[in-house]
Amino acid sequence: MVAAATSTMQDGTFLTSVDFLNARFVPTDIPLKPRLNDQRFYHKRSRRGSVVAFETDKWPQGRIPYILSSAYTTSQRAVLARAIAAYSAKTCIRFVPKQETDKDYIVISKLDGCYADFARVGGKQQVSLADECVDYPTVIHELMHVIGFIHEHQRDDRDGFVRIVWENVINGANTDFDKLSSVGLSNYGETYDYFSIMHYESTEGSKNGKNTIEAKATAFTKLMGKSTDFTRGDLNRVNRAYKCYGKMSY
Ligand SMILES: [Zn+2]
């Protein structure tokens, strides 16, 4: 791994070609860690589905300007580059260095744990990736919130696929298991996906080690929430929401 020459901008930096070269050595096949309370909603509105539906909530042309805190190490920058390169390879979403003319943008920094503002908020919005969050699947997951994904197990049709075991959920984590049912979201033709990168695993947020989520198809209970990357269903939803198909060469 080569030391990254960083380009600076205000109090932050952008990823460099060296970071993207280092990204090739980043492991991706690692388990997700718990990420309770990591999706933050600025605009209260009705939702139905799993992915943002209104054009006003999306990032125009899938272009997401970013500023990166200068606090990340060379190896952490490589992880971030790996995730951003994966979006570029598999979708038409582009995380691009913020230009002066960009009014809506994300700031990626080590604030307080792992979380991201949901969809395009307007103006500056935050992605917090503290040290414990800088691994490939977690970065992919948090950036999915940025482009407009909720958690899979919070879809309004989830009751047909999973059961929430409320008595095992730690106090204060209830909102991570609430069903989000209203308008403003779409599933873009994708059925419930136990393997989505946006699904929690069965014991996440548990106060006693017992399951908080159980699959109706019981064989999936142990398997769900263990993805280390986008599923085909995740990619279909990204690419349909952002009208990527036809723009991509893969
Ligand atoms: Zn999340």
TrEMBL record:
Domain of life: Eukaryota
Entry-linked InterPro entries: Astacin-like_dom, MetalloPept_cat_dom_sf, Peptidase_M12A, Peptidase_Metallo
Pfam families documented for this protein: Astacin (PF01400)
Binding site for Zn(2+): H141, H145, H151
Keyword Protease: yes
Domain Peptidase M12A: 50-245
Active site annotation, chain numbering: E142
Keywords: Disulfide bond, Hydrolase, Metal-binding, Metalloprotease, Protease, Zinc
Cofactor: Zn(2+)
Protein name as it appears in the record: Metalloendopeptidase
Species the sequence originates in: Panagrellus redivivus
Organism lineage string: Eukaryota, Metazoa, Ecdysozoa, Nematoda, Chromadorea
